[in-house]
Amino acid sequence: MSVASKNLWRFLCATVAIILMAATLNFVVDPLHLFRPARLLPAMYSPDSRMQDAGLIRSQQFDTVFMGTSLGIHFRQSDIDRVLGVRSLKLAMTGSNSREQGFVLAAAMERRPKRVIWQMDDWIFRDAPEIDSDIYVPADLYRRNVKSIAGYLFSGAMARESLWILARAIPPFEPIVARLTNGVMFKFPIANVDDINALRPDFDVAGFYNAQNAVAAFRRITDPARSGSIAEGYNYDAMVRGFERDAVALIENNPDVTFDIYFAPYSILQFVAMRDASPATLKIAYDFSAYAFPRLLQFPNVRLHDFRDVKEVTHDLGNYGDVIHHSPAIDLKILSWLAERRHLVDRAKTLVSLERLKAQVEAYKVDH
Amino acid sequence: MLFNSHSFIFLFLPVVLLGYFALGRRSHLAPVVWLTLASLVFYAFGGGQFVPLLLVSIAFNYGVGYLLIARKLGPGARFTALTTGVAGDLAVLGIFKYAGFFAANLNALFSAGFVVKIVLPVGISFYTFTQIAFLVDAYGGNVARYALPHYALFVAYFPHLIAGPILHHKDMIPQFERAETKRPDPHLILCGLIIFAIGLFKKTCLADGIQPLVAQAFGSNAPTFDQAWIGVLAYTFQLYFDFSGYSDMAIGISLMFGIFLPLNFNSPYKAVSIVDFWRRWHMTLSQFLRDYLYIPLGGNRHGSILRYVNLMITMLLGGFWHGAAWTFVAWGALHGVYLCINHAWSNYGPKAPPRFARLADIAGAALTFLAVVIAWVFFRAHDMPTALHLLSKMADPSDIAFGRVEMVYALFVAIYAALAWFAPNTQEIMGYDHKNRAVGENLRAQRMKPLFLYASAAVLAFGILGIQQHSEFIYFRF
C-alpha cells in the first residue's frame, strides 16, 4: 500500500473513531434523558422547551401535564403539585401554536397521565405549519425513531453539552463550571426541573409587571403604524380547523384523561385594543369562543374555565407586563381557581362568561 | 442537496466517486457523462423544476458557441450570434431574477398593479456568467471546439454549480479531457478530504454557530450601540466563514475527482486596501467583472475620469448581480466609491515612508475592514430604511446595553476575528497551487507530522458532528 493510501486510511479511521467517541459520550451522559433518567451524573435542563420536553416526557414521573404558551411558562411544577395535589410535568412552550401543543401532548399521553391542564386562547389556533416543517420542534425526538436517535447521538452541539455536564459533575471543576453556566454559552444551565423557565429569584417582578408597562404596550400595539399586527393569524375558519384537529381530536382520543382547559386572564386592554384598532379581529375572537365553548363541553372529560372576565384581575393593570402576560401572583391565583373550580363554565349556559366579557370590553374606557 | 448534509457526505459523494473511477477504468467519456448526470441529480434535489431550464441554457449556449467556433461565419453574422447568445442569457437571468424587482418598482412609481411572482432558480447567476464568458471568448477566437458532454459538465459540474466559484472554460474543460483525472489518486483524495473538512468545519462549527448573534442587529428588536456592532460584526464573520467554507468544500470535493477548481478566497479580511480586498474576496467574480465588464467598458484606457465611471458601473452591476434589491445596489455603489477613493489616493495621495510601511498597512487594513463592515449592513438588511436605522444605531454610543449576553457575544466575535485575521488560510495550510495543479506536497513527502493528519481528522469529525438539520448557504440566494 502506498504512503498516500496509508495516510488516507489513517485519516478516515481517525475520523470515524472521533465521531464514535462523541456518540458514546452523548449516550453515557444523555443530556436530554431520552434513554434514562439522570443517574450517573446530576441532571441539567434547558429552557428550550420544544427540545427539552421530549426528554422530560421520558424521564419524569407525572400524573398531570401542564400545557400552555408564554402565559403558562413561568408556572412552577411545585406550585401546581402543592395547590392541586398532583404530580405535574410542565410542558408549556413560548409562542406555541395548537399544532405544536397537540403534538407534544400526544407524546405525553403515551405515559398515561390522568389529567391535562391546558392554558388556551384563540391565538394558539392560528394557521401553523405541519409539525415536520416546523423548524423549532425536533419532532423525531418525540417519536424516538432511528433518525432522531442518530441525530441526537451524532450531534456535536449535544456532545459539547455532555462534556459540560460531565465537567460540572467533577467536584473540583464544579464551582468554575457552575459560574460559567449562564445560559448564553451552554444550553443546559438549569439544575432543578422546577426552575425550568421559572422566573429567577432576583427577577424584578414589580419592575416588569406594572400598569405603566401594560399601558405602554397598549399604546404600542394600537399605534396606527403597527396595529395591523393585531389581526395577524386571526382567520376564523383556520382557527376552527386547528381547534378540531389539535384540541378536539386529542380530547376524543383520550376519554380517560380529564382535561382542565382554561382561557387565560388577558388584561382587558388586549380586547380593548382589538375593539379600537381592529373590530373585525375582536369579532373573530368572540365567534371562536362561541364555537369552541359548547364544542368542548360536549365532552364529559372536559372541565372548562374562563378567566377572561375576572374583572378584579383583568382590570387591575398592575398585574401585567404588557397587554396579555400576567405576573407570577396571577399564576398562583389561577391554580387556586382551578383547585376551587371557580369560574367553571356551566355546561347548560356555555356563553355566559363570554357575554360578560363582551359587556366589560364595551364599557371599558382607556384613560388618556 | 447541501454539501453539509449527511445524505451528501455519506451517500451521494461516495456513490458518485465510486461510479466515476469505476467507469474511468473502461472509458474516457463515460466518467464525464456520469459526472454530468450526477450533477443534474444533485441540482434536481435543490429545485427539480429548474433542471430543464439548466439543460436548455446549456444547449442554447453550446449551440451559439458552435456557430462561433466551428462555422465559418462572416464578422456580421458572428457578432449577431454573440449578441443573440449574450442577450438570451441576460434575458433569462433578467426574467427569473429581476422581473419581480422591476414590477415592484413600477408599482411603487405608478401604482401599476403588476404582480410578478417568479421563483429564483438556484445557481442561475453562476451558470449564466460562466456561459457568457464562454461566448465572449468564443467570439474572440479564444476557444477550441469542445465536445458537448465536456461542455455540459463544465457548466453543470456539481461542486461549483450552486454557489460558485465561477469557472472558466479554459481552466476546466482541459482538465475534464485528461485521462489521469479518471483514475483515483489517494493523495488527491486525502487532500480533497482535508480541504473539504476545513470548509465543512468553517460552515457547521463557525458560520452556523455565530448565526444567532446576527439577530441582535438584524432581528425585530431595536438594537443598542453595542448590540448593533456585535450583530453586524457577527454577520461579517458569518458571511466570510459561510462562503469561504462553501468554496473550500467545492475545491475539496472537486480535488477528490482529480479536478483543480480556482481559488475564491484569500483571507480577504487581511486586505490592506479595498483594491486588495477585491483581489481576495470572491476572486472568481472579481476576475469575471474585470475581464468581461470593466475592461470591455474601457477600463483605465480612456483617462482617469472614465476609469472612475467604469469602476462605478462595474461595482453597481456587481451589486445588482448579488440580488434584485436596492440594498445590493447601495452595497455595490458603496464599494464603487471605495474603489474610486482608493485609486485616487494611490495616484494623488502621499506615500508612507518605508519605515512606516508596516504601520500604514495596519492602518489600511483597519480602515478597509471598517469600510467593508459598513457596506455589509446594506448587503444584509432587508431594505434601505432598516440599513440606515442600523447604521444610525452603530453611530450612537449613548445607548449601550453591554450585559451578560453582550459580553459573551463580544468574546465570540473576538475569537472569530482572531481566526480570520491571524490563522493561515486553507490554501496556505494545504499548499494548494491551482495554477501548477499541486497540493499537499508536504504531506506527500511525509514532511507533515501524523499529528497534522489526526488534527485534520478531528476537523472533519467536528464538521460532521456540527451538521444541523436547518442550515443554508447565504450565497444560495444569489
Describe the structure.
- The complex is a heterodimer of chains A (368) and B (478).
- By secondary structure, chain A is α/β, with parallel strands linked by helices.
- Chain A has 16 helices and five strands.
- Chain A is elongated and about 85 Å long.
- In chain A, strand 1 (64-67), helix 3 (77-84) and strand 2 (88-90) form a beta-alpha-beta unit.
- In chain A, strands 2-1-3-4-5 form a five-stranded parallel beta sheet, sandwiched between helices.
- In chain B, helix 1 (6-24) runs antiparallel to helix 2, helix 2 (29-47) packs parallel to helix 6 (148-156) and helix 3 (51-69) packs parallel to helix 5 (124-139).
- Chain B is globular.
- Chain B is built from 20 helices and no strands.
- Classes of the chains: A alpha/beta (368), B mainly alpha (478).
- At the A-B interface, helix 1 and helix 7 of A face helix 9, helix 17 and helix 20 of B.
List the helices and strands and how they pair.
The complex is a heterodimer of chains A (368) and B (478).
Chain A: H1 3-29, H2 49-59, E1 64-67, H3 77-84, E2 88-90, H4 98-109, E3 115-120, H5 139-143, H6 146-153, H7 156-169, H8 174-180, H9 205-208, H10 211-222, H11 236-253, E4 258-263, H12 268-277, H13 279-296, E5 302-306, H14 311-314, H15 328-340, H16 352-363
Helix pairs in contact in A: 1-7, 3-15, 4-11, 7-8, 10-12, 11-13, 12-13
Chain B: H1 6-24, H2 29-47, H3 51-69, H4 75-110, H5 124-139, H6 148-156, H7 158-161, H8 169-177, H9 186-218, H10 225-256, H11 274-280, H12 283-297, H13 304-322, H14 326-348, H15 357-380, H16 384-394, H17 404-422, H18 426-430, H19 441-444, H20 450-465
Helix pairs in contact in B: 1-2, 2-6, 3-4, 3-5, 3-6, 4-5, 6-8, 9-10, 9-20, 10-15, 10-16, 10-17, 12-13, 13-14, 14-15, 15-16
